[in-house]
Design brief:
single chain; about 250 residues; mainly alpha
Length: about 250
């Protein structure tokens, strides 16, 4: 029995079907794994290393900056720290003691009106109408005032000498505080207190000069007043009197 001939297009379709079916039943072949290799790029490695170095340098710069800021804050804290020592009270007490001695001046004190009044009366010109008893009383008063002035001067001298030991102690303490100052403020405060100590010493020196000058002035004023009084007494002695006047005397009772 004969079969009709197939056309070329039909033959291609049958071949495709057969190939497809054969592929479905064919065993699966797995290709072996291929080894993976890493390629080293020196340029890329150098670039990454440079980037990491720059980042590390930035971090180091930030750490240094923070350290500098912390040190700056510490320095500011030291500069603002107050001096834990004060000699002001002791210096004020020394000045008060000297002032009290000046205020205790006897008789003619440190007062302009009192001085003017004394030189118009006690130390003025000897009055022509004053009696001998009055002249003697005024001379005694001037002498007592001069002695009181000398006593006051010596008391001020004793007070100033008594302050020397206190000043020496304070000066030693303040110099030690200045040398051990941790900041600018402490050094400045120690320097200011040293200046205050010098001012207190100048105050003592001024008081001493004033007391000595007062005593010397009173002594010179006494001498000047005594000289004027001496001239008046000499004038009275040399002034001619009325002479001897005879009188009636009874020797025996009648």
């Amino acid at each position: 029995m004969s079969h009709p001939a197939l056309s070329p297009s039909r033959a291609l379709q049958i071949s495709a079907v057969l190939l497809t079916g054969a592929g479905a039943f064919a065993p699966v072949l797995i290709e072996p794994a291929v080894a993976q290799y890493v390629v080293f790029d020196p340029n890329n490695y150098a670039q990454n290393l440079l980037t990491a170095a720059r980042a590390l340098q930035q971090i180091q710069n930030q750490i240094t900056s923070l350290q500098n800021q912390a040190q700056m804050l510490l320095n500011q804290a030291r500069n603002l720290a107050s001096l834990p020592y004060s000699a002001l009270q002791q210096l004020q007490q020394s000045i008060q003691r000297t002032q009290q001695l000046l205020n205790q001046a006897q008789r003619i004190a440190y007062d302009v009106q009192t001085i003017d009044r004394a030189f118009q009366t006690t130390y003025g010109n000897a009055a022509l109408t004053a009696s001998d008893q009055q002249l003697v009383a005024q001379a005694k008063e001037r002498w007592q005032t001069s002695v009181a002035g000398l006593q006051d001067a010596m008391r001020v001298q004793a007070g100033v000498v008594g302050n020397i030991d206190t000043n020496r102690t304070q000066m030693s303490a303040l110099v030690g505080q200045s040398q051990g100052a941790t900041g600018a403020l402490q050094a400045t405060q120690a320097g200011n207190q040293l200046l205050a100590l010098q001012a207190q010493q100048l105050t003592d020196l001024t008081a001493l000069l004033a007391a000595n000058g007062r005593a010397q002035a009173l002594t010179e004023a006494e001498r000047a007043a005594a000289a004027d009084q001496g001239r008046e007494q000499r004038r009275r002695f040399l002034t001619p009197g009325t002479g001897y006047q005879p009188g009636n005397a009874r020797m025996f009772q009648n």
